[in-house]
């Protein structure tokens, strides 16, 4: 299989992975042949890339941090609980057993991630047509736990971090939908309303049985900045908890690599470049360096251009050096498809570099031009 940007899909290609709706229901099955209408619909519904079948790469294995059934169950549970909070219209509305539900869910997520020896931050393998609040929350949780494992957190800390990351945006259930889903730029008044989600989230979680207080502080602190220019408290540097610093990174990364109303998705290596533009001011430098070391900036299945002029597909990642993957050469320097593709390990061939990525946008915003990743 290969990972193909939506705008480069062609009629006749066949899906390599199922596509789900926001409730985990299969909308398009594996091997479905894409038509022009289907391709247009996929783009309209927010997908930035899909896996397609390709005889030269169908043997490539795609690593998954969560089992498919765990991810589907998590998506359903998050949506159910968040929807009930939204519909209550009150900070004091529905949420009996909220802590018990999410602690149980976190135990299953931790079980999946702990069973993997080598974990990295990679684009999630499950293709969903609606990257809504709950899918974003799950991704931020997974990415944060990868970094927590890299920091050798024990199970108690992983649970605290995981719950904080999973519920970091729970306060958005108290923000009017017409503001959260506004297609254009927010007004100052609207943006001020959205910023309240940090405080709302803290208030929802701080007294919830089963939710550690430090996890509630993740909801409060994930928009603080190292230079003190964040919100809601304007904390800086050492005053921000490490969990808050970490979730600030994973929250921004998932927002950047996802199609949103106000922006097209960046590729992982572009998003990491954007994050580094905020090193020391927006993000903690040490946390950012750790993130870089564990981020799969070239996802398995991605088509890349090499410094040799050849075209290749990412086959496997080295956990100790994800920036230097194993690739499979599929086209020569003249663009001719090889009848016998072969693999090259860039970890051992330092003279060969990745110089481009299929579907890469030439325009990467500066940190000052970033959209409001709320």
Automatic annotation (TrEMBL):
<feature type="domain" description="HD">
    <location>
        <begin position="133"/>
        <end position="256"/>
    </location>
</feature>
<dbReference type="Pfam" id="PF13487">
    <property type="entry name" value="HD_5"/>
</dbReference>
<dbReference type="InterPro" id="IPR006674">
    <property type="entry name" value="HD_domain"/>
</dbReference>
<keyword id="KW-0378">Hydrolase</keyword>
<dbReference type="GO" id="GO:0016787">
    <property type="term" value="F:hydrolase activity"/>
</dbReference>
<dbReference type="InterPro" id="IPR037522">
    <property type="entry name" value="HD_GYP_dom"/>
</dbReference>
<feature type="domain" description="HD-GYP">
    <location>
        <begin position="111"/>
        <end position="307"/>
    </location>
</feature>
<protein>
    <submittedName>
        <fullName>HD-GYP domain-containing protein</fullName>
        <ecNumber>3.1.4.-</ecNumber>
    </submittedName>
</protein>
<dbReference type="InterPro" id="IPR003607">
    <property type="entry name" value="HD/PDEase_dom"/>
</dbReference>
<dbReference type="InterPro" id="IPR006675">
    <property type="entry name" value="HDIG_dom"/>
</dbReference>
